[in-house]
């Protein structure tokens, strides 16, 4: 029987397109065990609570022979994404950083410890994430370097020219709107400063000529993950929007093949392993391995993100303020 309340809740969420609500009620960290937001604790401060899809190029990928270790392999790829952004930004000692949409703060802890910037200021719309990430930074003795606050990347409470680097790690797809964020990022960067983002978009315009039914389908699913329609850009438009915001040397490098297939296999492994634990004796390790093998062999053009959201591109974005 159709669960009417659940359908109504999903429809309402799709219409609200509210990231704070989404990350407070629906989505917690993606490993280990994919807890709900209200189950997340600061713990020792070191438990991985990442929320990005991972950068799978130089790490062990999940497959049918190692899928029981997905809880360890997924965070390794997610931290690689943070390293990729840091290296792209030439992050180094003494710099001032603004991190927009920091999740539970994993990336700020990693950047503070490995790249030694003078200060990392983080801004995030989800209050529970701000609280837990701040507790973690304090537990690790990093609260002198990392300062995290509630607020929106589209209305930054900072003066002009305060930062050397602005990051948005898989967060700007949610901003209302991404264009407003680019304008704000440009304002708060000092001359010579860099904006670096990891973000989803489209390789080419996949929206033109769609049937009404298909449009509604995409709108519904994008709304469910709190992605505003105004952010449905092609990679070409993305670079042109950076230019219009005032940035120079703007580029978007496609890393889609190093993100989506790896994440797809990892999510399949997580769901299958969880199901095996919930249904012992019914759902076996053989079935987990079969599911993971099938996911690994999927056509990269038919993955979830392409079909449900139309976001077949995943870009590593770089731009400078002259
Ligand atoms: C997919 S998560 C990525 C989190 C983190 N970067 C990571 O890799 O684990 C997106 C994040 O963007 C934040 N966010 C969404 N809209 C925002 C906004 N307007 N301003 C600041 N943060 C926002 C969410 O609260 C969430 O923390």
From TrEMBL:
Biological process per Gene Ontology, one example term: methylation
A UniProt-annotated Pfam family: Methyltransf_11
Metal-binding found in the keyword field: no
Domain Polyketide synthase-like methyltransferase: 57-293
Assigned keywords, A-Z: Methyltransferase, S-adenosyl-L-methionine, Transferase
Example of a GO MF term: methyltransferase activity
Signal peptide (residue range): none
Record's keyword annotation contains S-adenosyl-L-methionine: yes
SMART domains named among the record's database cross-references: PKS_MT
Protein name: Methyltransferase domain-containing protein
Organism: Pyxidicoccus parkwayensis
């Amino acid at each position: 029987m159709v669960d009417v309340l659940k359908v109504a809740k999903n429809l309402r969420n799709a219409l609200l397109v509210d990231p704070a609500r989404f990350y407070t009620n629906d989505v917690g960290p993606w490993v280990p065990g994919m807890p709900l937001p209200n189950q997340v604790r600061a713990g020792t401060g070191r438990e991985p609570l990442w929320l990005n899809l991972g950068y799978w190029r130089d790490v062990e990928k999940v497959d049918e022979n190692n899928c029981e270790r997905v809880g360890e392999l997924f965070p390794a790829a997610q931290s690689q994404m943070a390293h990729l952004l840091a290296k792209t930004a030439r992050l180094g000692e003494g710099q001032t950083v603004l991190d927009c949409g920091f999740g539970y703060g994993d990336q700020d802890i990693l950047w503070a410890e490995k790249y030694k910037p003078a200060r990392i200021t983080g801004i995030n719309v989800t209050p529970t994430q701000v609280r837990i990430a701040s507790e973690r930074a304090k537990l690790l003795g990093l609260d002198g370097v990392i300062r995290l606050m509630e607020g929106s990347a589209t209305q930054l409470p900072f003066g002009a020219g305060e930062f050397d680097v602005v990051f948005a790690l898989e967060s700007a797809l949610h901003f209302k709107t991404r264009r407003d964020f680019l304008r704000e990022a440009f304002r708060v960067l000092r001359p010579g400063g860099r904006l670096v983002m990891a973000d989803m978009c489209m390789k080419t315009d996949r929206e033109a000529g769609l049937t009404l039914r298909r449009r509604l389908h995409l709108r519904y699913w994008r709304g469910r993950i709190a992605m505003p329609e105004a952010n449905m850009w092609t990679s070409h438009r993305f670079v042109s929007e950076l230019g219009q915001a005032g940035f120079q040397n703007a580029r978007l490098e496609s890393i889609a093949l190093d993100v989506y297939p790896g994440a797809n296999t990892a999510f399949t492994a997580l769901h299958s392993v969880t199901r095996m634990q919930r249904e012992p004796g019914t759902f076996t390790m053989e079935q987990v391995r079969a599911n993971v093998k099938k996911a690994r062999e999927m056509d990269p053009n038919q993955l979830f993100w392409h079909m449900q959201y139309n976001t077949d591109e995943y870009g590593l974005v770089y731009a400078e303020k002259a």
